[in-house]
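[step 3/7] inverse_fold.run input=structure_tokens len=148
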């Protein structure tokens, strides 16, 4: 029960941070990504400070985590199994970046923006879920076809 409560608390804190920093506002994100808008005055560098703050907090968390044998509410840390940069990682990162640059949403802020009742995040989240399902079908077929 403590794990569920702390997970809810962390989710609320994360969502509140996304709203407060305006990461769930696609116009703000798109203005940040529009580095070419420096000359016209539309570029908004403020989200760089949000990212700097997030990276700083995460770095402290990783440093503290290295000193522990296990997380507070789990038996073991879950590290990624793959550590190589491969085509799938590059394709996934490129797809993420292109999607973020086109519409100003990435998954976390899009889920947070669902609470605003606007159609844009609903469409984005529906497309995101469709993409996940399509990938699962593709991955299942690829794994099945590679088994001899």
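[step 3/7] decode complete -> sequence:
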């Amino acid at each position: 029960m403590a794990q569920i409560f702390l997970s809810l608390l962390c989710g609320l804190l994360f969502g509140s941070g996304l709203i407060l920093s305006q990461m769930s506002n696609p116009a703000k994100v798109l203005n940040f990504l529009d580095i070419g808008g420096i000359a016209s005055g539309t570029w908004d560098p403020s989200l760089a400070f949000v990212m700097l703050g997030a990276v700083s907090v995460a770095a402290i968390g990783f440093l503290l985590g290295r000193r522990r044998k296990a997380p507070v509410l789990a038996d073991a840390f879950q590290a990624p199994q793959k550590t190589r940069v491969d085509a799938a990682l590059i394709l996934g990162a490129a797809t993420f970046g292109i999607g973020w640059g086109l519409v100003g949403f990435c998954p976390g802020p899009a889920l947070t923006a669902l609470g605003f009742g606007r159609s844009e995040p609903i469409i984005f989240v529906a497309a995101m879920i469709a993409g996940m399902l399509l990938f699962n079908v593709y991955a299942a077929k690829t794994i099945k076809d590679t088994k001899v």
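[step 4/7] annotate
The chain has one domain: 2-146.
The CA atoms of residues 51 and 57 lie 10 Å apart.
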